[in-house]
Amino acid sequence: MNPNTQAGADASVADAPPRSHPRAFEPVTLVLTIVLSVLGALIGIVLITSLGVSPNTAVIGALVAMLIGRIPVGVLTRMRSKHRQNLVQSAISGSTFAAANSLLTPIAVPFALGRNDLVWPMLGGAVIGLAVDSWVLYRVFDSKLLPATGSWPAGIAAAETIKAGDTGGRKAAILGAGAVIGFVGALFKLPTSAAGVGFLGNIWALAMFGVGLTVGQYAPEFGFDLGARHVPHGLMIGAGLVALTQALLLMRTRKGGAKGAADGPAAEGPAAHGPDADGGLTVQAPQLRRGLLEGMGLFVCGAIVVAIAGGVVGKLSLPALVGWVLLAGVAAIVHQLIVGLAAMHSGWFPAFAVTLIFLIIGLVLHIPTVPLALLVGYTASTGPAFADLGYDFKAGWLLRRDAAPWRPFEIEGRRQQYLAQLVGFGVALVVVAVAWKTFFSEGKVPPVAEVYVTTIKTGLEPGTMTTMLLWAIPGALVQLLGGPSRQMGVLLATGLLVATPQAGWMVLGALVVRQLYTLWRRRGITDAEARKESDEQAENDLSLVGAGLVAGSSLNDVGQLTKAL
Fold first, then answer.
1. How confident is the model at residue 98 (pLDDT cuts 50, 70, 90)?
2. pTM over 0.90, yes/no
3. What is the DSSP string of 277-317?
């Protein structure tokens, strides 16, 4: 894929990488990580409670780390290292999503239900969900299911921002121009990040995402409200079930080495084999299987803790209690995988919609109000942090491609990123634990939590589940047609669920520009090798533009903080 091939070219101009990866707990890095994580957590909870959104703050973290590295004062110059900048941006983005999506939103569910006594038990469950969420991604990133060569658009934006600050030149100019366009467009309410994603991801997956966005936007004008009829939710159920089956088949694949890597979605990127002589993925099928099974077991254990702490044990019979625990465990891991796959391909994650699906399933099963609220909160604690860590790992993976030997440096760098994110999560927990009473007492509750509670109280209209199951059939067929490397069904459903105004045109327009620019660069070239080189250069140029658009849009999202205050 475009950024992966670009990484090889960058190696020739970048400074030689250090022999060992910088540590997350180095004093300067740790202090800066904690300070920026506090900022990220505050940004997250302010925006999620006021505007209902949580921005990606990775670019902000990278920019601050770069600026500090330019201060000519002793140890501060260490922050000139792109790897230390990567650690800092990983922590701040992790703290933002952890505070807003994984911690504050779950505890807002029992609060909005009027059960303040369940806020602290729910916070404990959300912490478990967050911890397991990140642990599973750490174990399975760069597998055939979630390859490092996947799109992960926000990760590319963060990596290209860091590299542009490190090397400058033409690439920095292109990235900067894209960032300005992205920022200005976002000021005028245009979803420029959608156009950026269109320059970065898999064309087939993004085409389905664009179609979903466009249909979701215009269907109500023809008197067909897809969301009210739960059509996108049905499509997601069908696509999600097939996606899970495809994941299970990947887990059963026992072939390792280069062949195992070449068979999966990672093989779509030109850098699938990496700089190592042996090539391949860093996580093979047996490790993927262990990671997901461990995650499932830990999620079930977390559900048991929530059931005991939240009083579910006294409200359900033993068979119903066992069913609730199993459903909570399955919902948590299914939620994280669907959100992660959607985020990898599109840069969007339909966390709210997927949680709503399990809420509807709970209503169909006639789960009592309080156990259902705790189930929804526990499910909501997973997914966003999983996706965000994928973005950060992608950024680190791109920044580490010039290391030699690559594999041990990459694995150690990923471990340090994970530790940095744990620092960010810890800071987010402290901020949420201190601030939630103040925010909630002032009526600042995440809007999605109020939607969950309203749905729990009002129940379902007759025939809702039948409609969803009928629409699950085409969702399953589209997902089956695209295969695990494209996730077309999941992306179609994601587009319908998100339905951001004008985003569909942005994605589809970017795909058209992408093809036209490639053909324009190819004009007059007849040699096959020269055409291939031209196509790769076109992808590299467009990846910089796309990364700039995403980065500029992210800066505007953070700038919305002034509206919220």
1. very high
2. no
3. SS-S-SS-HHHHHHHHHHHHHHHHHHHHHHHHHTTGGGTS-
